[in-house]
Amino acid sequence: MSKDIDVLVLGGAGVDTIVHVPELPLPYADSYMIDSGIRTRAGQTGDFVALGLAALGLRTHHLDLLGDDPEGDLVRALHRDRGIALTAIPQKAGTKRAVNLVSPDGRRLSLYDTSRSHPDDRLPEDTVRTLAEAARHIHVSITQPCAHALPVLRETGATVSTDLHDWDGENPYHEPFAYSADIVFLSATALTDPQRTMRRITEQGRAHTVVATAGAEGAHLLTDGEIHRIPPVTPPAPIVDTNGAGDSFAAAYLFGHLTGEPPLRSALYGATAGAHACTIPSTETDAIDRATLLMRTA
Fold this sequence. Notes:
- The chain is an alpha/beta fold.
- The strands form two sheets. Strands 5-4-1-8-9-10-11-12-13 form a nine-stranded mixed beta sheet, with helices on both faces.
- Helix 3 crosses helix 4.
- Strand 11 and strand 12 (about 220-225) form a beta hairpin.
- Helices cover about 35% and strands about 25% of the residues.
- The protein is globular and about 55 Å long.
- The two termini are about 35 Å apart.
């Protein structure tokens, strides 16, 4: 059966309001003057992964819940302008949104508006199945509607990846994602023993590959039972924001994987794309393209 979609991205659509602050943590004060302005733009984890995949030439389709509101319009416009197919399921509670406080060194603190999601939110099973059956691969955001879609995804036979972000290795919410995916990405930030957590994911789940990103220290790659250290890649310009670096890493790794590259080469793609993302201001949405990625990793 021919596949019309290279990667189906599930979930993670939303809007961020960016506030550049003098430092993090932000000391208490009655008020702060934000000279750089406060800006709202489309782009949460699923949006950034879809953007990264599309920029690398993969046929990408994004499925999520969106509200009929200004935030939803921003998400729709981003996908339309970048030529990314989007299936938006109506969400009465509104489009997901967050406020990101960004420090001068590019670190961030995200405040998520949880009023825009409900425990009974679901992605329609028929829609999920139809799109999944047309896809070579599916990347799943760790949102609650996506958790309910996992059994359907497995029935289609498509390979699955997910990003657990800053999982501490203990929170049970992340486990269905960790143990249902073939490729698992996560941040090593909250892990006391990243390698132990990575091995547990492969032992208790179906993953053949686990990647734990470690910021300026590079990444850890577990594949074929061996753990490799992926050295960091020097960014091509000064670091201005780390937001989206993990999403860019995942997108470029999947590009390598889906074009037949071995895991170590795919991880180099990921590290290179992640470094590039750190040079993009948080108020913008951009991703490394295929020609630039291949040139920098030649």
